[in-house]
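Ligand-bound model needed. alpha-D-glucopyranose.
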Amino acid sequence: MIAIAKETIEQQANRLLEKSIIYYNNQPVGAVAASDSEREALNYDQCFIRDFIPAALVFLIQGKTDIVYNFLIETVGLQKQKRRVDCYEPATGLMPASFKVESQANGQYLHADFGDKAIGRVTPIDSCLWWIILLRAYVKATKDETLAHQSSFQEAISFILEICLGPQFEMTPTLLVPDGACMIDRPLGLSGHPLEIQALFYFALRAARELLTKDAAGQVLVKEINNRLGSLLFHLRGYYWLDLKQLNEIHRYESEQFGESVVNKFNIYPDSIPYWLTEWMPDRGGYLAGNLGPGKMDFRFFSLGNLVAIMGSLTTEQQSQDILTLIEQRWSDLVSKMPMKICYPAIEGLTWRIITGCDPKNTPWSYHNGGSWPVMLWMMMAACQKMGREDLADRAMAIAEIRLMSDDWPEYYDGKNGRLIGKSSRKFQTWTVAGWLLAKLLRENPDCLNYVCLEEDTEAIACMI
Ligand code: GLC
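Prediction:
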């Protein structure tokens, strides 16, 4: 009898990733979000820009650069480049949330969703930021700047910069966005200045600065970028930072202060510090708050924003170490049985009713509201490797590996400790597969870490006010 060798987790991940690829005119251009035949596809049969990032990075590390090249070319073609004629159209510069290959009599075409078809009509603001970050990774991997220097790509970057750096109704350097404008694409109290968008914005600005050609037009944009980077860094490192010392400061804040040099600039009332945090904040460690606006700070811990902040050197060396220390200290809350919580803690009761609009998908400790998302593994690996804390990422990988394959690579897990497969979770979710594979590949190829990490920015520090 011939014994059939059991597929290893790595073989399976590679096979599933290969199977998820979408072809357009016989060329690979992206990947479906999930291939779960047991659930209604909705839009999971589309290629989401944010979902494709870990898959694209896997392909780059494996030397399969064609698919990433095609993806970048096709998405430039989909970007909104003309002034809108009616206000239901996306604004110039936006990249779609997702796209799909459609067929008609005279061939195939790509159909994009800018949120105009999405549940809740959410704007995918993170797409254009991730797109620039991926373009930089492509240049790093191929060591070829020709694609990025093409006029259509330079134009695409400048459209994105125009929408991000243009005038806004704001007195802060952070980006003001509606709720659900990123990975958390349902109402969860993320309107205003959510950390995820700010961390991606910071990374994308720095990536754009590297990618712009140094001609006259490029120089003007670089100057604008530098102006913004300095104040963005100052604002986020200073005002978003939370640790025990800062919590003590806020706890004893005076309020109603008027004038330029006041301490409590955003008029945060000490009473707004949630009770859980006074016990949860460890003696050592800290993190960036979820959101900050007039009279309001979101004290929840959001993983993606904090990890991308480390990867992009938005946080100082010390702050980056502190974030990882906090993850270590609060391991049973943030990692537990599946790395890792998208945010902590969940919102419950009346707060849940008001903030989510009674969203049955986002009940406490499910989905975006305190669910556990294995895609987070690659960002955790990158952040840990950057800070020399591979021990933490290895622990997380060991936990994930016990279950991901036997659970059929779920989109997310439920419960306080992430033991249950998510209620409405898709199986064979591409970014779960790619996220695990990417974490493994980064661990084995530390020279590829610079595709997704940036060192401290000396230029912006010089501009800091
Ligand atoms: C869900 C997630 C979103 C993801 C999409 C496709 O809507 O919230 O972040 O892009 O599914 O996987």
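The longest strand covers residues 98-104.
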